[in-house]
Amino acid sequence: MPMNTGSPQLSPLPSATDQTLYEQVAERIQSLIQEGTLGPGDRLPSVRKLKQQLSVSMSTVLEAYRLLEDRGLIVARPQSGYYVKTTALALPDEPSQSTPLCQVRPVDISLMLRLLRMDLSPETIHLGAAVPGVEHFPLTMLNRLMGQVMRNNPMAVHTYNTVPGCEPLRREVAKRMLNAGCSITPDQIVATAGTTEAYYLALRTVTKPGDTVVIESPSYYAVLEAMNSLGLNALELPTHPREGISLSALQSALGNQSVSACVLVSNFSNPIGSCMSDRKKKALVELLNQYDVPLIEDDIYGELNFEGSRPKAIKAFDTQGRVLYCSSISKTLSPGLRVGWCIPGRYQQQVEHLKVVVSHMTATSPQLAVAAFFANGGYDRHLRTLRRAYQQQMNRMLQAILDYFPAETRVTRPQGGHVLWVEIPGGFNALELFEEAVQHHISIAPGPMFSTSHGYQNCFRLNTGLPWSDQIDQAMKTLGHLTKQQLARKLLSSSPNTKSEFSKPD
Ligand SMILES: Cc1ncc(COP(=O)(O)O)c(C=O)c1O
């Protein structure tokens, strides 16, 4: 039953603001929910009433209500209207900033390899790998464009192309970089086989074996694999789940030892979803300039913001060409086409040379198909739909954590992308959960994979890139049950360690 049926009075909307009209309406309602004027279970003003009160159109109000649904704050009830969700404000706490030991270490990937090579049954529900559901991608259009490219260039697609890649792709990427705050020309871009090749080339360009590279903690595990293969040491620094790497820790690290590079996932990071403010991005670039340290920026999730406009790249603040920017279409269009790019700044020549050494060039037809999609395939429209789908899926996953996991569970609240980082206190061991979950045909990514010291034993990462389904809901229920069982076992065997370990990776 609704607890409050009287609708609050709303003053007119301000005229000059950056937000669209429906975002302003949504903000207005959201603040009424947050300040408690509209409580859990309350009915929202009817669409007609709000339209009159705010002098906006019916579709603006509907769009605002849809946005609030995506944010997980309200629900629509058929024939009845919109209501504040009963659990809208009851999400679990977020983990706090990590506190790794800040020691230089070689990168050990033995555990990662064991877990990644594990034989998973074909019916496994993949909540471990950060892989989007292909259902989200415009496959018909992409396949048609691939066919068109092959037909229109029957010989050219079968010969060697220029090393930096196809000009149409680089032109379209340069245009898209304007949204990230970067003014780049096509000849400053090198096409690569995904982001993976981009950061591998970047790392190889700016380091030599034995060098030290600063990384976030926890850190995307494939970067650790690349660093291991290049014989690099890692220096993991404290990282906040919302604001990213600690600049004060970075400053003292740079002052105390020789660092060859810094690698960061700048926006909606993997695994903890952080997204630095512009102010922090600028300060980071200034700090790295001061110590003459290059930054490898992985911005693969940058276009997957749930709200507002796309966050700027760190590259937008790069005045001296020290940022090697890496990205791809793997999270937005297709990981299988292997189309990515590097914008290497002052390291352009070295990256181009290494690209020849490593793979000579990037395959032509996927580049041209993606360029055509960017140019006139409705990419921005597709992104709007995709962002909404990822946001809804993340909200469903958060709700499932709330419903099925122990009350003390902590979870990140990313504002984009498609991964969640879960922390369970009470002596919980994510590797044990992994082993048990595999028996139930569910995969998760245990925390120790994301650290050189195999810390974060009580954490794991969940993929929210798959369309929500009863199977995923059931898998979450099973994971919650296994977690509770494990904690009960630990309690019985009287392990008294109930302290949060997010901040103790070692
Ligand atoms: C942060 C990050 N970088 C890079 C990749 C891999 O990108 P690509 O498929 O473009 O090589 C992923 C995939 O999960 C990722 O999460």
Question: Which short descriptors sum up this protein?
Answer:
4-stranded antiparallel sheet, disordered N terminus, Aspartate Aminotransferase, domain 2, 3 domains, disordered C terminus, binds pyridoxal-5'-phosphate, Arc Repressor Mutant, subunit A, about 500 residues, Aspartate Aminotransferase, domain 1, alpha/beta
In summary, what is this structure?
The chain is of the alpha/beta class and 506 residues long. It has helices at residues 21-34, 47-54, 58-70, 110-116, 139-152, 167-177, 194-206, 221-229, 247-256, 278-291, 348-359, 364-376, 379-404, 430-439, 470-492, and strands spanning 74-77, 81-84, 104-106, 125-126, 190-192, 212-217, 233-240, 244-245, 261-265, 295-298, 323-328, 340-343, 410-411, 419-423, 442-443, 445-446, 459-463.
Written overview of the protein:
With 506 residues, the protein is α/β, with parallel strands linked by helices. It folds into three domains: 21-84, Winged helix-like DNA-binding domain superfamily/Winged helix DNA-binding domain (Arc Repressor Mutant, subunit A), CATH 1.10.10.10; 107-134 and 381-492, Aspartate Aminotransferase, domain 1; 138-378, Aspartate Aminotransferase, domain 2 (3-Layer(aba) Sandwich). It has 15 helices and 17 strands. The strands form four sheets. Strands 3, 5, 6, 7, 8, 9, 10, 11 and 12 form a nine-stranded mixed beta sheet that branches. Strands 13-14-17-16 form a four-stranded antiparallel beta sheet, with helices on one face. A two-stranded antiparallel sheet has the order 1-2. α10 (278-291) links the parallel β9 (261-265) and β10. The longest helix is centred in the C-terminal third of the chain and has 26 residues, at 379-404. The protein starts with 20 loop residues before the first helix and ends in a 14-residue tail after the last helix. 47% of the residues are buried. It binds pyridoxal-5'-phosphate. Pyridoxal-5'-phosphate binds next to α7.
